[in-house]
Design a protein that fits this description.
Number of helices: 1
CATH topology: Porin
Largest sheet: 12 strands, antiparallel, barrel
Helix content: 10-25%
Order of helices and strands: EEEEEEEEEEEEH
Radius of gyration: 14 Å
Strand content: over 45%
CATH class: Mainly Beta
CATH architecture: Beta Barrel
Shape: globular
Structural class: mainly beta
Strand order of the largest sheet: 1-2-3-4-5-6-7-8-9-10-11-12
Number of strands: 12
């Protein structure tokens, strides 16, 4: 399943739309607060499916993640020398991003690559193409990608 994940230009709180490769609307992401990043994800019918919330007062950026079925977790950045690695205390998932941050690989609890995300250059707002092997994992990958965007925004602000 291929998803196009695009930030809406001129959005102060964080606003993203997610489409499939045929242009069909899949998810809507809306920011809720200005002082701390809180992003709510809704499916194509407007039903909430998950939330990403930045945790404050931590040395490295951490985000709490909640799916509507009650599954909770924490996403944190780990800092190896060669690339950025994000760990999830969330269903055993991890993400590894290249040094430039243009390509990320998402691994499931078994350690196999479950999705790839590539940043599309030369656009006014952030845009990614995300390839997910199993459509039921699309929300998990989207939550992780949003947490990575929050971390990048915090790193750019420093």
């Amino acid at each position: 399943m291929r998803m196009l994940f695009q930030e809406n230009a001129f959005s102060l709180k964080g606003s993203y739309d997610v489409f499939d490769d045929a242009g069909a609307f899949l998810f809507q992401v809306r920011g809720k607060e200005l002082l701390r990043h809180t992003l709510e994800i809704r499916d194509g019918h407007g039903v909430p499916v998950g939330t990403v919330r930045e945790k404050v007062w931590t040395m490295l950026t951490k985000c709490s993640v909640t799916l509507e079925d009650g599954t909770c977790g924490v996403i944190r950045r780990e800092k190896p020398l060669r690339h950025h690695c994000y760990g999830m205390d969330f269903c055993g998932w991890t993400a590894e991003c290249g040094f430039s941050g243009r390509h990320c690989t998402f691994r499931n609890a078994q350690g196999t690559a479950a999705a790839q995300a590539d940043r599309v250059p030369l656009h006014l707002a952030d845009r990614y193409v995300i390839d997910v092997d199993d459509p039921k994992d699309a929300v998990k990958v989207l939550l992780l990608m949003l947490a990575i965007e929050i971390e990048r925004a915090q790193a750019a602000a420093c």
